[in-house]
Amino acid sequence: MRATLSLFALDRPALIELSKELKSTLLSDDRAALAKLLELGGSLADRVTEGPRAVDWFLRPEADSAAAPLFASLRRVAKKRALSLAWTSPHASLEGRLRAFDVLREDKNIADLLDKLLDPNRLPWFLVRPGATCGWLDDEKRGRLASLLRPLRAALPDEVVEFANAAREVDGAVVIHDAL
Questions:
Q1: For the chain, what are the domain ranges?
Q2: SS3 letters for the chain?
């Protein structure tokens, strides 16, 4: 079964601060600070003390059973500190519509904004899961996208109309994701 997309309100300053804390902790190889930052306890807190460097845990693939819980903890903390769920589409087809629906692709401004929204390279590495659909837009671009979609509602499928309504209702920057 295909995952559905969710829209999250993004507290960008909080995400930037978390990224800085993580970078500092990994650069200093402070294992206790990393365990605290990731809110780890017990065996997971002990796990980050293993190996030559703390950063090595995040150089492993996410499929590595020993590293997977650390990636999950990092994403959980990121969600808690910087993201709040605004809306989840019930339609598995939304991603395909946003990427390829002809009415959306005919307008270069809309297509460019959707491409930015669906670009995982624009998110911090720890929010990008392998194979996930994800990305973000700042407040100005989110508002512009919602405004550009509004006059097209009659020509859009239900899932895109619902997405446009959700994007319009969120205040501030947004993250879209199918695997958080």
A1: 6-10+86-177, 14-81
A2: CCCCCEEEEECHHHHHHHHHHHHHHHHHCCHHHHHHHCCCCHHHHHHCCCCCCHHHHHHCCCCCCCCHHHHHHHHHHHHHHHEEEEEECCCCCHHHHHHHCHHHHHCHHHHHHHHHHCCHHHCCHHHCCCCCCEEEECHHHHHHHHHHHHHHHHHCCHHHHHHHHHHHHCCCCEEEECCC
